[in-house]
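>> received
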Amino acid sequence: MSYHYEPYSREYMASGTQHKNRKVMPKGIIFHTMGRSFINKIRNELVQAGYIEEQLDNFTIDEHAAKRLNERPYLAGWMIGQTGLVFKLEEDQKKTLHAGSLKKSVYKKDNWRDWGRPLGGLGWMKHGRDPHRVYDWFDAWFGREFNPSKDFDWGRFPNQCIGIDLVPDQQGKYTLNQMSGAVDLVEYLVTEHNIPMDEYHIVTHGMAAPCERGTVMRRGKCIGVDWDPGRHWDHGRFLYEQLEIDNK
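>> returned
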C-alpha cells in the first residue's frame, strides 16, 4: 500500500505536534471530520494564492488541507482526501491530540446519558430529557448499558487510538474514493498494530465521545446526533459492507 504525504520540515516539526512517543500502543481507530468551515478556509486560502475557485480540483484541496493540518497542535495521524489519497501526518507510535480524554466526573457515572456538551450550546449541561431518547443512536450501536469510559479498551482516553481525518466537500459529504481509501488504511492499521477488526475498536469520534461529539443544541433542546464525522459518513456501511465485519 502506498501513501501520499508531505515530508516533515523543521517548520512543521516546530509548529505541529510535540512528536512525543505514545506511552501505550494504539488501541483503536477513530474517524473524524475536519468540518465544512475548515474546507471553506482552505478554498479561500487557495483563491487568495491565485487559484481560480471554479477550477479548484480535489487533489489541490486535499494537499493544501494536509499541509494545514500538519501545522496544527491538533491533528489526527492520518488524513483521507476527497480523492481517496491517504496522507500520513504523523508516525503511529507518536502521540497526537485528536480526541483528548473523557470528563471523569460525567463518564464515570452510570447516568452519563443525563449529560451533554452539545454543539451550539454553552458547555456541559444536564439536558433534562429522556437520556435514552437523546442517545438512542448510541444505544442502537452499543446497547443501553454501555459506558464508553468503561467498556471501550481505551477507557477515558480515546486519544490512545489512531485518528483518521476525513476531508468533506462544501456540503459535508464524502466520496466513494474516500471509503475505498479508508478500507485500505484500516486494514493496514489493524494488521500493523494488532487492533481487533470490530465495531468496538473502529469507531467515529461521536461514538468515542458521545456527550461532546454526539449532541447538538436545537431550539433550546439537547438533541442526539453523531456529527463527527456526521451523517454523510455511513459508518455501518463502512464496517459491515466495505470491511465485511460480521454484524452481530
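>> The longest strand covers residues 29-33.
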